[in-house]
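Deliverable D4.2, example record:
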Amino acid sequence: MISSVTGELREVGDDRISLGVGPITCELLIAAADIQLLAAGVGEEMTFHTIFYLQGDASGGNIEPRLVGFLRKEDKRFFEKFITVKGIGPRKALKALALPTGEIAQAIESKDAKFLTQLPEIGKRMAEQIVAELAGKVQEFATAYTGATMGGAGGHRPRSPIEEDAIAALMALGERRMDAEHLLDRAKQLSPNVKTTAALVGEMLRLRTVRA
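Output generated by the structure prediction step:
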């Protein structure tokens, strides 16, 4: 089983990426929330935590192998729970995960079906189904992005979901968390009006280049 792959990010599409792994180029399907973020990292070496599955109808002989990639182990584990909901397959789940998993998990734990209907592919009935099947089962993911429980006593200070995503992106490029947080703080100080994950990552990458 392929649990992770590391390689050069060569191309970012609407719902997938191309990753150069030695002489091989792998295609990975990616959650919607990460696509814009990854666009800032083309040419960088990254590690993706992966899930392999078969798409298609076996009875018709039309089966295609697919590899799904995640920057964070927590996102991979959340995805594995998310697709257990009746009516949500891997492709639908990837489109639906257009917000950080921490926010989605928090909405599920809060039984906020209205919030979930903001997600692509998720209507009112499906949102209620998600809450019914997963409420009480995804609390660990709801707190993973706040920073409140990371590292225990003396751990990292709380960060917003956008900031956590930016930090995770830099860590996927090989930065230590401490260094990624330092780059984030510098980016916020120099560009206080930057409000999106993609913009933060772009500024952090610029600062990293200057530092190098």
